[in-house]
Design a protein that fits this description.
Two copies of one chain form a homodimer. In chain A, about 35% of the residues lie in helices and about 15% in strands. Chain A folds into two domains: about 120 residues, Aspartate Aminotransferase, domain 1, CATH 3.90.1150; about 220 residues, Aspartate Aminotransferase, domain 2. In chain A, helix 3 runs parallel beside helix 8 and helix 4 packs across helix 5. In chain A, the strands form three sheets. In chain A, strands 2-8-7-6-5-3-4 form a seven-stranded mixed β-sheet, with helices on both faces. A three-stranded antiparallel β-sheet of chain A has the order 9-10-12, covered by helices on one side. In chain A, strands 1-11 form a two-stranded parallel ribbon. The longest helix of chain A has 24 residues. By secondary structure, chain A is an alpha/beta fold. The first copy, chain A, contains eleven helices and twelve strands. The first copy, chain A, starts with 6 loop residues before the first helix and ends with a helix. In chain A, strand 5, helix 6 and strand 6 form a beta-alpha-beta unit.
Chain lengths: ~350, ~350
């Protein structure tokens, strides 16, 4: 607390990212990072980057990257907005669309950054409970609202909605609906193909998970041109040049290496299915995941205990002290070797 | 305009960055970029960057870079806040400190992003006129206020205040005073040494100008630990990981190459002094600059005409359509060769 802070800053309850400890080498299964490196093609891009050009500001519109994303997703360039990680894209979106007289709606168990953005921008919100199986229920999103945001697949449950469900939500509101697809590449269906039908749909994706570029901070939104223009108005009132020149060049190279992208994606899905089964055999209840993580509860051992014991053994997983899931662990999918190490460690603890 | 935008987005009047045209090669003297490349030592850092690690999120606190900046400036690490360019640092600062019941004060001629931030965060502000010589006047900053922000040297005038003047402003208010030192390395005195005396002082600097790293997006704030904590609360409610891993490593290498930094800085100052004199000889009135640009008005030719004619000759300068300076050109200092080309072009136009 400080006399210099504004009222909003005093009231903020900032997001707490998964720990990134520097004290030793952990098997990091706590922040949903990709266990595989980014496309080998980016090595050349980085190595040969003309560093003299860094004295220049980057293109404020990141036009080349926007063109590349538009073409990859079958959209027009004016349907693409790029930000410094999808968290920044989300922040701008909350400010651009969700401060309304009616409340924003999102699931009670969901990305824990959403209520933080609401605090930052003083947005009224209402959470809609997931059902007993942790699935998104549709009916309540039809109530009067100032916007809807749903991660698909949801985090930290990993459970995906079908496009028919997304359409039901879109049809029942005139507000902006954001589908936050951070994890969509791990088996869920993207809502991108609904964009030209629904002017109120914004889809947000990231380079941090399936493209192994969390370290470079790149996310983007896809939607109707006037939603994108709204985001640009906010961005150009905040920071004209959010995307650095190296990041932009690397991201384009990543998009161009489709084969590698598919290969890593499939490998993570295969490891997830193996780990899911192995956890079930150790008496875990595992939610059906379409993402690169599993949310799992042990029949008898406490999540807090398992988290602590795993940490001692050099394995980090994530434990949210959130109602209804406070006895679950969220486990990011590692390499097969890391997944096996986790199972071995769990066996020794249990 | 769109039914989906919030009221704030409708009212925004976004910042317009200097043009970055892609149609041809210009002599770019319009965005205050450094004419010299960044330190050669960063080449090795970029070339040998372990790209495999990009799959990981960066350190959310950018601890290594914060330590490096703290040590360079003789402060503690908890007195340093790092952002994705100083524009982002400014944006967070406006939100963290300036939304108050009393108005924020800044000069009427100043960085044109300030009123934009005020629009974004609904901050009440009042501009204080520069005097007839375009100098900051001190008296009016003593009136009741919710904060003060002054670029030093001021932009786009280039004129610097002495530390005694900064202290006068600090002594006359209990609000946060931000000294925006984007251009301080070109001959002005930094207020950093006042930080431990004035808990309400925040100094903001950038890697974009004197460190030739505009393309990498790095800026920082230095101040009392609880101001920095306020900024961290906002940042952690907006984007946990604003600084990418490559940018962070490059910035550290830049700080370590002090000799190169000094050499480029001095070369720009020498070129500025030469260009100043050459413009005077062409009948320009040139404001006394402590920055890497000159604000200059011709005795008879109109700024708009000169801007247009220079553009046709492949030279970009900046022309602000702002009252009192709408007949001035802001000219960034280029290499000696670029400065000479500008003078040759101006001679041919005049």
């Amino acid at each position: 607390m400080s006399q210099y802070w504004t009222d909003i800053v005093h009231q903020l309850n900032p997001y707490v990212p998964g720990e990134q400890p520097q004290d030793m080498q952990y098997i990091k299964l706590n922040t949903n990072e990709n266990p595989y490196p980014p496309s080998p093609s980016i090595l050349k891009v980085v190595e040969s980057f003309p560093i003299d050009t860094l004295r220049r500001y980057p293109d404020p519109e990141s036009t080349d990257l926007a063109n590349s994303l538009a073409s990859y997703h079958g959209l027009k360039t004016n349907q693409v907005f790029i930000g410094n990680g999808s968290d920044e894209v989300l922040a701008h979106s909350f400010q651009a669309f969700f401060k309304q007289s009616k409340p924003l709606l999102f699931p009670d168990i969901s990305y824990s950054f959403y209520p933080v953005y609401c605090g930052l921008y003083q947005i009224d919100y209402k959470t809609i409970p997931l059902d007993d199986d942790f699935c998104v229920t549709l009916e309540q999103y039809a109530q009067p609202n100032g916007g809807v945001i749903i991660p698909n697949p949801n985090a930290p449950t990993g459970i995906a909605l079908g496009l028919d469900a997304i359409e039901t939500i879109l049809k029942n509101t005139n507000s902006v609906v954001i589908i936050d697809e951070a994890y969509v590449d791990y088996d869920a269906e993207s809502a991108i193909r609904l964009i030209n039908q629904y002017p109120n749909l914004l889809v947000i994706q990231t380079f941090s998970k399936s493209r192994s570029l969390a370290g470079l901070r790149l996310g983007y939104a896809l939607g109707n041109a006037d939603l994108i223009e709204g985001l640009n108005r906010v961005k150009n009132s905040f920071n004209s040049y959010p995307i650095d020149s190296i990041a932009s060049a690397v991201a384009i190279a990543s998009i161009e290496d489709e084969a590698y992208f598919q290969q890593c994606r499939e490998q993570v899905i295969a490891s997830r299915d193996w780990l899911n089964q192995a956890l079930v055999e150790l008496a875990f209840k595992v939610l059906p995941s379409s993402s690169n993580f599993l949310l799992a509860e042990h029949q008898s051992a406490l999540a807090q205990t398992l988290y602590t014991e795993l940490r001692k053994l050099g394995i980090l997983v994530r434990h949210f002290k959130t109602k209804r899931i406070d006895n679950y662990l969220r486990i990011s999918i590692g390499t097969d070797k890391e997944c096996r190490a986790l199972i071995t460690a769990l066996k020794s603890i249990l």
